[in-house]
Amino acid sequence: MGKLVVVTNQAHDHHDTGRHPERPARLQAALDGLRRAAGDDGLVPIESRPATAEELATVHDPAYLGRLEAFCADGGGLVDHAPTPVSPGSWSTALRAAGAGLQAIEALDDATDGTTAGFVVVRPPGHHALPEHGMGFCLFNNIAVAATRLADRGERVLIFDWDVHHGNGTQAAFWGDPRVLFISFHQTGLYPGSGAAHENNATTINVPFAPASNGRDYLQAFEDKAAPAIEAFAPTWVLVSAGFDAHRDDRISDIQLTDTDFAALTRNLGAERRIFFLEGGYDLDAVRDSMQAVASAVLE
Q1: Residue 211 to residue 102: CA distance in whole angstroms
Q2: Is the alpha carbon torsion for 26, 30, 31, 36 positive or negative?
Q3: Which of 64, 123, 237, 299 has a CA between 20 and 30 Å from the CA of residue 265?
Q4: Distances in Å between the alpha carbon of 132 and those of 44, 84, 274?
Q5: Could you say which residues of the chain have pLDDT below 70?
Q6: Catalytic residue among 12, 60, 127, 128
Q7: Is 128 a catalytic residue?
Q8: Per-residue confidence (pLDDT) for residue 83, from 0 to 100
Q9: pLDDT of 1
Q10: Using CB atoms within 10 A of its CB, is residue 86 exposed (0-12), middle (13-18) or buried (19+)?
Q11: In this structure, are residues 8 and 100 in contact, taking their beta carbons and an 8 Å threshold?
């Protein structure tokens, strides 16, 4: 199986959110989970590099990039009502978060030891960021930047989003794009209010779940709705928006998943080259245990 590529911006994290659920300790919890699963010898650690303006512009409007850079340089504030706070250091940190997925792709391309999986453990997260503005704790859509790189070189990319909130930014980036299959499992009625079951097209599948849904519900929905679409699409790469806020111990939602359920979803995603992007997840123990379970499932 090889090792696990782990790209993080922990050493260059200057994104100061103050007293906020999206905080630096989340990265340490996720990294602790990976080490418990693979040990230090089983990880290939990489410090993320900044994405370039050209790489970001494959997903984001250059005008938005200019506004955000200036906003951070002027001291920052709230990007939207979520709230999404930014500080002077948020620009450089977000650049590294967006570049991390590209580095994971490059590392897996170059791997000669059977390594086929990577983990992008960065902040700020990305799946709510729209092409024209950030929202929901997200500034750049990290997973969309990586998926665009792969699609542009001819890959068929599955993005599976199990964060408890709908990945509206990712959906907007690839709506109608036949190169990318986007599947989102999320709780109905939560922020940002999108992702209804009828909000689908040929390569977008939204599966909203009622509050108190559990792992059995998720796995049945995967078998009924996700698996047939994935088989027909035949992806060559799988990218996962791995938010752990659907965990039963995370107070931000009412979904009742366990770390074992995240592992089961991972096994169902097949053995293609896979990269897991940390999105939400605000209970530190749940993040650590869930990341450990996912990584252990990858290494089986």
Answers
A1: 35
A2: positive
A3: 123
A4: 34, 15, 27
A5: 1
A6: 128
A7: yes
A8: 83
A9: 61
A10: buried
A11: yes
